[in-house]
């Protein structure tokens, strides 16, 4: 939520694509409580673990798409373009979610560890946008 807040704090212009991309992100985020509850009750079952990873993956992809639409809708000097750069954290998160979702059918614990690694990566807030604003 913090990154979403910062993303829109610096956005100067909005268009229809950005609105739809934001709704797309919010849709996937709205499924997190359901999948979290299900995995909490069935953390050794592959389907809940895979679905949880899939929802996290789709949320990460939706955020990546939203960020891209916002960047493309602004000029070359837009603060977000410089702040995000190559977006290593975003790309590694997507990769770990793909790995976790796939491996959940072989070993749910490795999948949960992959999801936890993403949480640890993002535990330290991404201050690139904040630094660019100030």
From TrEMBL:
<dbReference type="InterPro" id="IPR010617">
    <property type="entry name" value="TMEM175-like"/>
</dbReference>
<protein>
    <submittedName>
        <fullName>Integral membrane protein</fullName>
    </submittedName>
</protein>
<dbReference type="GO" id="GO:0005267">
    <property type="term" value="F:potassium channel activity"/>
</dbReference>
<keyword id="KW-0472">Membrane</keyword>
<keyword id="KW-0407">Ion channel</keyword>
<keyword id="KW-0630">Potassium</keyword>
<keyword id="KW-0631">Potassium channel</keyword>
<keyword id="KW-0406">Ion transport</keyword>
<comment type="similarity">
    <text>Belongs to the TMEM175 family.</text>
</comment>
<dbReference type="Pfam" id="PF06736">
    <property type="entry name" value="TMEM175"/>
</dbReference>
<dbReference type="GO" id="GO:0016020">
    <property type="term" value="C:membrane"/>
</dbReference>
<dbReference type="GO" id="GO:0015252">
    <property type="term" value="F:proton channel activity"/>
</dbReference>
<keyword id="KW-0813">Transport</keyword>
<keyword id="KW-0633">Potassium transport</keyword>
<keyword id="KW-0812">Transmembrane</keyword>
<keyword id="KW-1133">Transmembrane helix</keyword>
């Amino acid at each position: 939520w913090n990154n979403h807040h910062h993303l829109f704090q610096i956005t100067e212009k909005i268009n229809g694509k950005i609105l739809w991309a934001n709704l797309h992100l919010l849709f996937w985020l709205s499924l997190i409580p359901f999948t979290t509850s299900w995995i909490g009750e069935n953390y050794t079952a592959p389907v809940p673990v895979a679905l949880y990873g899939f929802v996290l993956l789709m949320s990460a992809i939706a955020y990546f798409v939203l960020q891209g639409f916002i960047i493309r809708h602004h000029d070359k000097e837009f603060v977000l373009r410089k702040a995000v750069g190559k977006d290593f954290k975003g790309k590694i998160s997507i990769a770990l979610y793909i790995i976790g979702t796939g491996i959940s059918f072989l070993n749910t614990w490795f999948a949960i560890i992959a999801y936890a690694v993403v949480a640890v990566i993002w535990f330290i807030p991404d201050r690139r946008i904040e630094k660019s604003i100030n």
